[in-house]
Write a structure and sequence with these properties.
6 helices, Four Helix Bundle (Hemerythrin (Met), subunit A)
């Protein structure tokens, strides 16, 4: 691959890491409050949903950028993009069900926001179920 694509991927990964740090710290705050038995306000609950949406969307974008940089076909489907990374072992194939669940959550936040079980989402945040998305965004994946 030429240096131009490599640079783009490096810059993209720097940006996604910054987003991961920002949104991850918000989710860490929410996790801490929930672990202390504190209830989140409606505004904080919406912040949790937004942070999750942004993290997952950035992970999907990073997956597609990695595929593009490696000269692989870039599927439209987020599920297919992560499945491609699992086949290439960029992510662990064992983690694919968790990725599919994360993509499903993102889709629900965006498209079915009236049918979100916020208590279930907060339980996921409290036990750090989102951590693997943040770690993927922070990792520097070679081309």
């Amino acid at each position: 691959m030429n240096g131009k694509n490599s640079m783009r991927l490096d810059l993209y990964q720097i940006e996604t890491a910054q987003v991961a740090r920002e949104q991850g710290s918000l989710l860490d705050e929410a996790c801490q409050k929930l672990s202390n038995g504190e209830a989140l306000s409606r505004l904080e609950q919406n912040g949790v949903l937004h942070a999750l949406q942004v993290l997952i969307e950035n992970a999907i974008g990073k997956a597609k950028q990695i595929l593009k940089a490696r000269g692989e076909p870039v599927p439209v489907s987020a599920y297919d993009a992560l499945a491609s990374l699992a086949r290439m072992e960029v992510i662990s194939p064992a983690d694919l069900p968790a990725w599919n669940a994360a993509i499903g959550l993102r889709n629900r936040i965006v498209h079915e926001y009236m049918n979100i079980d916020i208590e279930r989402v907060l339980e996921l945040v409290q036990v750090d179920q989102h951590r693997f998305v943040t770690e993927f965004l922070l990792a520097l994946i070679p081309e």
